[in-house]
Amino acid sequence: MMTSRKILIIVFLFLVCGNGIEAQTKTQQLTLAGRVVSTSGNVLEGARVYLLKSKISTYAKKDGRYGLTSTVLNDTLKVEKMGYRTVSLAVSDMADPQEVDIVMDSVSFEIEGVEVFSTGYQTLSKERATGSFDYLDEETLNQQVGTNILQRLDGLASGVSFDTKPGQSGQRKLDFTVRGFSTIDGSPDPLVILDNFPFEGDINNINPNDVESITVLKDAAAASIWGARAGNGVIVINTKKGRFGRPTKIDVGANVIIGSKPDLFSLPQMSSSDFIDVEEMLFNNGFYNRLIDANPSYVALSPANEIFLLRRENKITAADSAYRIEELKQWDSRTDYLRYFYTNPVIQQYSLGVSGGGQTYAYSISGAYDKSIQETYGLHDKFNYRIHNTFKPIRNLQIDLGLYGTASKDKNGRPAYNEIKVTGTEVPYLRFADEFGNPLPVATNYTPRYTDHAGDGKLMDWNNYPLENYKYIDATNSINAIVANLGVSYEINDWLGVTARYQHERQENRTRNLADEYAYGTRDMINKFTQINPTTGEVTYSVPRGGILNTTGTQMKSQNFRGQISVDKDWRSHNLSGIVGGEIRHTVTDGISDTKYGYNDNPLGFAPADFVNTYPTFIRGTRERIPVGSVFYEDLHRFVSLFTNFAYTYKDRYIVSASARRDASNIFGVSTNDKWTPLWSAGLAWDITKEAFFEQALFTHLKLRTSYGYQGNVDLSRSANTIISYAGRNRDTDLEQARVLQLGNPSLRWEKIGQYNVGVDFTLKGNRLSGSIDIYRKRGADLYGPEAFDYTGWGASNVMTKNVAEMRGTGFDISLLSRNIDGVFKWRTQALVNMNKSKTLKYYGPSGYSGGMLGAGMIVTPLEGKPLYSLASYRWAGLDNSGDPQGYLDGDLSKDYNAIILDVNRNGEASNSMIYHGSSVPEHTGSLINTLEWKGLSLSFNLAYRFGYYFRKPTIAYMQLFNSGRMHTDFAKRWQQAGDELNTDVPAMVYPANSPRDQLYLWSEATAAKGDHIRLQYVNVSYRPPAFLLSKLGLTDVQLYSNISNLGLIWVANKEGLDPQYPGSLPPLRTYTIGLRAKL
User: Fold this and answer.
1) Which residue has the higher pLDDT, 94 or 700?
2) TonB-dependent receptor plug domain: from which residue to which, for each copy (predicted)?
3) Residue 869 and residue 698: Cα distance in Å, rounded?
4) Fewer CB within 10 A of the end CB, N or C, for the chain?
């Protein structure tokens, strides 16, 4: 047998001798070529193809093709790909050794294509990647259901954490982060890529059934190619495409999702009896006298207060008053809300896709329709269509044409819980119908003591009937979106190609809100500006009779052009692959809104209204202008970029990668654009299992990775230019006025995120356990934030946005797949374990953020050395024997609430009146998915956890209770008599309310709790009929499935059993799904 040393000598002599030897040995060469596909026909890019004796190897390219030249005729061709059974073929046994197509079977529980990543610029096989990626294919994404494709990442993608924080920036559209936060005052949203280009539209426009895979780019080596918009991570969405040489395939899907009614009675609301007792106390103390004694007295009072007033004015007897009050105490408005305004939400989803291809043409056509009724009877309809064609008109030339469209419409429903208030105050005992279901009026703005007599019957009905009012409002929101793209690729030779791509994206939103003449808001507006001549009784309508139509239209247009050169060169033991190119991007968003009065649909028309002059209002006689809704705006963003990304591979085991990108934009300042400072990355990888010395006793695959580089982050709401806003006419001068919102900052630049990552990918022998472990460290610089400014120079604000902060984030992502049992009965466990901790390193902006930590932990608190989202509390010393809360001041017990608050505001965490708890965002997240299979029947369930954080428990605040009706069941636990301080922390109710006293308790240790919890995300049950039965029916695959989602908590750390993600509010509704997927 020939030794390895002899083979190397022969290969060396062959290479040195050049053409002479080539001519002599030409007759002994054998060229092998073909495609590598899965059993279902999917291309397996990145599959390793090699000859055992010749030790020549290559990888299947994007179209699945490979090519090898052998000098040994009697050799063995082997094809390997993680997740598939290795294929071995003897060269001498091949009937047609020149063209060999390889078909690979997937290993149990492995999904096809799982080892090829897409960056939006190129596709990379996992074997040659140095970066940190997370890949989810169609099968994995289908473990979740719903209309939002990115919501399906929850609990399925490592490093991705969903949260309920509102965020600091109005630019935030998504509710999850990749590897935590990388910004302080900017948008934390990851960049979303759809079919190679950034997607600027509504995520809900994307049809989940069109998505083939999602790749999460997490570290610098993976994401920095996207430059100044990659600092928060990148989500790459690839839609389904047709395949060459494939027969026509038809995909059909249908499902129905039914949600439970919201459990309004689970909300921590005071009883009606307790609430009315509070109202009576306030009434007796004259709290409402300012409203009652006004001239005229027109402001609405709650039903109980109206009764108290009638009794005080001796218009009803004490017995009548007591009887009516007792009736109100027995009523809970949640009963009427559930009866008249809520229903079980239902979503229906239908999809149809057709794909296939010949030798020079491939196509994919799909359509989907969603129809739903929401829990408050709102309606939603959405239609998606997608066409993608690929042509190969001549050799080496490929043309891609794609068109993606969405048309959706949402229609208003009925009032949601607590939407109906009395003068802005929540009232828990409102009734909307009598015992026979007849609508009842609710005094929401004006007391019937005024409206019943105002205008002597010449005004429109001024009563509000919530049970009828929604019927006279037609509010719709329509979205029409389209994405069209063109790609042209030409392979100059087998290792060099050029590509040009163009994409046009357009989204139009139109909101139409028509409140007809009988809607309460319309009647109120008309009455407000109605004038009645006291002498003649003539009625003049300054606001024309008829409906009020408010329309808003926004349009986003985006154009992208990219040109790049691609290299993928194999020679001997080397491979060099990469891209270099440039792109330009132009996005403009404009909007306009308008209001029409006296509007009628049939016959179509409206009446002109005078928006210039002022008119006396009916109630108070003050002069006001008729509200006008005409607003227009325009945002323009331009980007110009140059980029490159290359990877060098030696002996299929040593990999070096590097990338660089330079961005310029009209968002950045002139001085920033003039500086040529690219964002870059570098990476290394070593596949140890391919070393000759490596014994595969434990591992069949072991690869080490490391990378370092810089990504950027841009908040599109920022600008280096001066921005003004027109504010209409000045009340005093009657001249048009404008305000400077932001001064120009020529030094404004993108936020810069440096990230170091080290990772390992492994598979144990026997394929029982596989996974990856990544440890990372991020450092953000030039982060956005407010900085003090001499406001006397322009008179608008004393701060302006600059690059003023630095932060650091550390963490790890662990993804494990265990095949516990792999026989007729199969059991697989997938575990995701994530940790992310962040803290502010430097902050040069104004101080005074300690108060943010003392709240609910819902805003960023840039305090050096602390997490971006933190929770702290006033130190708590319990209640005294009179029910007053006690804190600490200078180490002593104190009830000097103002002094305690001032001490904390001045000294921050140095104050001994405050205690720091920790992060208010989970630092440890993850999930555990178990899947059981037996003869086509499958059961899976997902347990998700969030550990390592604190949250603020909602409770009672008497100032809020008195002024706005904000209530809580803790009211019943309040201190009421001496000795209660031993059993409760809820202070006694005092009048008048003391805001600092409330604040000490609201933000004290008594209301802070650990947020650690585990919840059951979903349970899936599915069934696939046997293959022999499907083949008889002409079917490739059929899956019947059911799903239950949002099953709730199964363990929580706080003793009250509160849901830390939704404290004091309703969690997502539990949903039940049944559906069918079929392939013909």
Assistant:
1) 700
2) 126-234
3) 43
4) N
